[in-house]
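Risk register update: the risk of archive-format incompatibility is retired. Evidence:
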Amino acid sequence: MKSIKCPYCGHEIDENENICPNCKMELNTICPFCKQEIKAYEDVCPYCTSKLTSKKEPKFLLPLGYTLSALWLILNIIELYLICKYPMMLKAKDKHGEYVFGNYEYTNILLKCFVVTAVPYIIAIVKNYKKEIAIICIIINSIIAICFTSFFIYYRHAYLN
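Archived output:
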């Protein structure tokens, strides 16, 4: 019994497996040249000896997610710093008497940016590329979003009262 890596998740599998026990992906595929059933991890078709292209991993997804998350974090820190430095902006009202920068507006901005930062992680999860790391990153970003929102609501409430 020979042990190899799953072409989808990299988990060690037995060469006789038909489904990866880790990512549940089918390990049998069809050779695009001779149409014979082969293993997904084969580099060369054992029937027609055609060189097969390897599965391309979306290696850019996690670094893109990290970059967007870092940018989002920095912008939120700057935004909260400016709110603390210039709290009078919390009292600004529009012509209808509504606060220009209320809880809803801040949360709306925060969550739209959060969704943008989550997209690379969601794509990584769908493509079974480092799924666990992507899930952890979404959880961390969610916790950060809750912390920023909580701080804003607390500070706004403390300043306005």
